Amino acid sequence: MRLLHIVISGLKGRKRDTAVLGSILFLAFFFLTLSSILLSSFSGTAKRERQRLHGAWQMLYYGAEGDNPELRTGLPPFAEMRLVGETNSGRLIGTIDEAVLQTAGFSLTEGRLPEGEDEILLVRGRMPAEAAVGETLDVTYSFADMRAGTASGAESVEKESVLSSVREMMTEADRESFREYLLENYNPQEGTVTITETVQGLYGEEAHSYSYQLPEGMDPEHAEQPVEEDLLYLWAHYVYGPAQFGFRPYRTSSILRKDGELYGYEDISVDINREGYRIYYNGTGFVDGIRNRYDDTAMHTSGVLLRKQYTVTGYVSPYADHWDVRGLAMPDAFVSPEANDQVLRALDFAAQYYSEGSKAHHTTGILLFAEEGLPPEEKAERILPLYRASVKTGFRREIGAEDSYGGITDFLTGRDPESGEEKTVQLHVYRNYDTHFVTYVLQDASGEWRLLTGDPTEEDRWGEFADVLLPLAPPELTFAELEQNNGYPLRLNNYTYPPSGSAGQSMQLLAGGVLIGVAAFSVFQVYWTQLRRRRMRLATMMSVGATDGQILGMLLLEVLLLLSAALLLGTASGFLLARLITGLRDAQFIVEGGILVAGEAGCVLAVLTGALIPMLLVRNIPLTGREQLSKRTLRLRAPRRAKRQTYGRILLRQMVVNRGRTLLQFLLALLLAVTLLLTLFLCHDAYGVYRRSVTETAMPEYEMVAPYGMSSRMFERSMEASEGLRQGSALTYVKEAPNVWLHCDALLKSSPILKTLQGMPEAASMFRELEGGETGFAVRVTGLPSDSDLLQTLLDMLPPDTVDREALEQGESCILLVPQYLPDEARVMQKLPDAAALKELRADELAGELLELHFPARYASVCRTDTAVGAGDEITLTAYRQFFLNENNETKLVEATETIRPRVDAVIHVLGEGIWPFSERNATHMVISGEKMVRTLYPQANMTMSAEQATFHRIMAKLYYPDCYGLTRFTLRNLPGSDPVTQDTLAADFAEAIGMDFTNYRIRIEREASSAQMRRMMFFLLGLEMSLVILTLLYSTADVAAEQDRYRIGTLQAFGLTEGQINAGQALQSAGIALAACITAHPVMAAVHLVTALFARNPQLALRENLADYPWGMHALICLLFVLVYTLLQSLPVRRVSQLDPIENIRS
Amino acid sequence: MEFILETRNLKKTYNAGTVQAVEALRGISLQFEKGRYYAIVGKSGCGKSTLMHILGALDTPTEGSVICAGEDVFGRSRKALAAFRRRQIGFVFQSYNLLQEHTALENILMPLHLDGRDPDEDYLRRTLQMLEIEGLKNKFPSQLSGGEQQRVAIARAMAAKPAIVLADEPTGNLDPNTSRHTLALLKDTVEQLGQTLILVTHDMDIASEAHVRIRIHQGEIVDVA
């Protein structure tokens, strides 16, 4: 207690010392708490925002079987979304409960979750018909692949109970309508349904065919037996499904007799036309008996339709566009698990219809694994066995599309029978007789499905088949592969949880480390200074018998007391301010207790260490308490001639003598200057990526690219259907011709870019030998409408009347965009990836990679300008086109070229302001002209396609005729006031509806902005904390120095030194140090800048890029403020001393 | 008669208003004539040094005034007070108060330089000769003995040709021989230059040489002889 009393009295007595040390400790805990909470709050808010946009689940397993409970033991916690089934309009219904709602991160915008068997929750905008909450909605499920094995249909006909459940699903009105239809279209007759064959569909689904065979001896003309039960499925398909019920549903003339017996009906076929693929079975072929494996099929159908009325309970926000589930269909509406059970019960009855080999419909589901702290690697290791157990051999389907004629084109990947390696083939299964496409069929051979092909040129095309592909072996999926290629049914949610690790957490660690380090150093510095000043008192205590241990204990106790107070106050203040800031910034308040406590414990340890060193050193103080005169003072030499001693000179001499103190003051000033400037630089640099990729390029929110030349009028008309999107966004439109070749033989001599590129084997794809032996260089022609804002922006960059507008509109002249190039190709070449990787790059990207081509003005001093083409020159452009020509009922692929010679009105090397899409990062040569030029190059480039046509066209273009219809690029920018999430959905839906490639940059922009904001906040907080601590240190040092100087000042006061002289002298001295520190800080900053740039891909460019748009005005202001604040801070203690009576100072 | 300095009812209380308040001076009224030598004597803690500090405007009185040239010294601004110290007063401290990083000459010239004046070379040479420190002017205080340091301090006090030289126990840190020698030099110099010397001492032998002896006890004048 006595020791405690002494310590408390001491702390009270040394108020200023206590305040300084306490302030530093307080600041450490305050900023540690503040930065920790702010970083976790903002990164948590950003994460929650990502969760809202991209789902809260960490991993997803699509297609999990529901009947393998033993495999589910040991799985991480998950929520299960069962896939109830698909509707006849191709919408998927899933189940939802509270666990799914939470794990998926759905936002329930209206209403509540469905309960019981009769309720449904809709995803906004996804169902073809929407109903208000409380209204009913008809849903027709279409189950296509529920049956397996063969069975006699006769068994079911007599079993009323089998179909009763299905019938229950139908309304009375449906049944009435059905009966009317039957009476109208069918002669009642007695018949049996025989399943003649079960066919494995292309995608693993099972489909079944039926033939109706009349009883022996019965005259079909007079048959009057009702066949309601037999035809129920067919009717259901006809009414509710997209299936076609043949072209001639019933025709007596086509009754087939085989060996004198009535066998079935000709020309009755059922196409089950479902989303994404079409299963077609030849319905015309069985006249001549079995000629191929399909010919015994008279009618085909598969599946059951169930109709159900649900009451809408609410809406959830659209999510499928934002989830990383490419290729996996996600539910568009949700029912309760009980409703799923009801559907399963109904289907069970239908399954029992086929007693032989009957198989219940087993639904699959989506397991959503929440983020609950388990690292993704471990989580994946526990889920992979379940996944592997369910993966079967098969083919991988890459793209599936339907052409406008109803055919489908897929790409299937399997094993090459000869090499055993993966091989992809095109698969077309429709209109075999009308096209030139190779036809493939799947055949069951040796218990393994194989993809076979027949030679289409053979007269009997069904005669022989050859192995084309063998099924792929089940992939041995590992976590590393999952990370690398996140395209499996087992998916990582990389959007919400970036695989590169949590940037927020790394920043927290970095911020914490720096804060703790600064705190420890500051405490050491301040405490050591204070203890040195207290040496007289400590020596007195020791001289009266205090032991080293007692002194150490006393000092430790006082540090602990201050530490405890600072810990409490700092944490509480940091907590409160963080709460205030998060409230103001509309962020969630998240405290990661573990991290905060660990950080504060680390800080306590560091601070104690920082204080312990001075405590141990203090034991060496001589008992007299006096310090020997410094050796430097003893070594001083008298000046040859006595100079007039002004106070400034006196101070200067003092600075020279007390070099250590002066150096410390200078170093602290330098540290403060560097901290301030570095903070400014890092805060600026935090937005570097955002600035380069978003601001400079003027990146739009959305971009849509049609794989053909669409007219803006057609696009506008299409947009009218999406009123919300049109009203909420501004549209830019350009038409592009990507595979145009600039004749460059003449240019090769003078163009350094072309000359260099031609010498690089990796850039070979950018050159092409043109007709006549000339060399062509790939350029992109962009056609702009005459009223385009983009065109006006480009024209504004040029001197007036440079461009002949009329000639430009007619495609007779052009503006040529030639990027600036970096001359140091050798260094660029060293940075190149391997040649194989380069081949994967697009031509324009390749150009950028090889030569470092840039448009922004700030590269002007680094890059050179290619002046090979100038205004007034004529350039020759050739476009290669391919198209199908139908002559004499024969279709053939034709190649043609179109050559034009426009005049170059202007050449642009520098694009000052970002003009998307010209300012995209990958700079390349571009020819800008009117729309007419693109139409001249591609005569077919002004058309409109349906979504299906566009998809088909895209696939065809990929294989056969790349870019022959050009491209149309639309960019949409959200207008102020529009809801971005709604715009996201509207834009994605719109793009899907008209078959355009859609890129949502908004999410990327937001992610970049959020990440930049977090980096800036962290740097700001670190800078602020360091600055405040250094300022405290500076004040403490200045205060100590003033105390040390009091005797001297008092003496000088005794001889007439005025207060003004003292203050002016001090201010001058401090300003000098500040100025020196400020000047020295710049080379230090330059060195930091240089070192960081050295690690960049291209140091020369990094040096320039890092300082692009750097706020030099703010920099100058900070320098000025620094000098002022430093001077003020250093002068304040001296000012206090100067105001005292001389004798007070002398006595000190 | 014209007094070069006069104190009227000077009072000084340290820690005024607290329980630790100490009355150092309790109404001192004195008059100092030009060219005279005054010795203030008394026991330790009687208020001698406090009186000296107030006379030299190094400290401010709690009450009362110091009159110089008919004007209350403490009624002046701080700047004027500094000028008063610079031009009128020469102060010799018991512990010399020399600036260690400056040579003896620099220390001596400091009051002049701070006033922006150049020294009167003849006067300076004469002073240095009288104080026998001519050969020490380029030495640093750390290279000088106590007596030498005090003589440098006296030279510094004389440098600006002040009318009054205040010496607060100038020989307190010196041995008796050095003490006598130093004091003799101080007295001679002051006499030759026609300055008023006010000296604080508790040594009655030294005090006996003064024209006027002022005896202080517990902050009050008990005897002026």
**Average predicted local confidence, pLDDT of chain B:** 86
Radius of gyration of chain A over alpha carbons? Answer: 40 Å
SSE succession of chain B: EEEHEEHEHHHEHEHEE
Count of DSSP strands of chain A: 36
Output the structural class of chain B: alpha/beta
pLDDT < 50 stretches of chain A = 145-171, 181-258, 260-303, 353-360, 399-408, 429-449, 454-465, 825-833, 835-846
Q: So how many helices of chain A?
A: 35
Short description:
The complex is a heterodimer of chains A (1148) and B (225). Chain A has 1148 residues and is α+β, with helices and mostly antiparallel strands.
Write a structural description.
The complex is a heterodimer of chains A (1148) and B (225). Chain A is α+β, with helices and mostly antiparallel strands. Chain A has four domains: 1-55 and 503-624, no CATH class; 148-302, no CATH class; 651-699 and 1001-1148, no CATH class; 708-995, no CATH class. Helix content of chain A is 45%, strand content 20%. Chain A has 35 helices and 36 strands. In chain A, a hairpin with a 2-residue loop joins strand 20 (439-445) and strand 21. The radius of gyration of chain A is 40 Å and the shape is globular. Chain B is an alpha/beta fold and 225 residues long. Chain B has one domain (37-60, 77-224): P-loop containing nucleotide triphosphate hydrolases (Rossmann fold), CATH 3.40.50. Chain B has helices at 48-55, 78-87, 104-114, 121-131, 146-159, 176-193, 204-208, and strands spanning 3-14, 22-33, 37-41, 63-68, 71-72, 89-92, 164-168, 196-201, 212-217, 220-224. Chain B has a six-stranded mixed beta sheet, sandwiched between helices. In chain B, a hairpin with a 7-residue loop joins strand 1 (3-14) and strand 2 (22-33). In chain B, helix 3 (104-114) packs parallel to helix 5 (146-159), helix 4 packs antiparallel against helix 5 (146-159) and helix 5 runs parallel beside helix 6. The model of chain B has no long low-confidence stretch (mean pLDDT 86). The interface between A and B is large, with 35 and 38 residues.
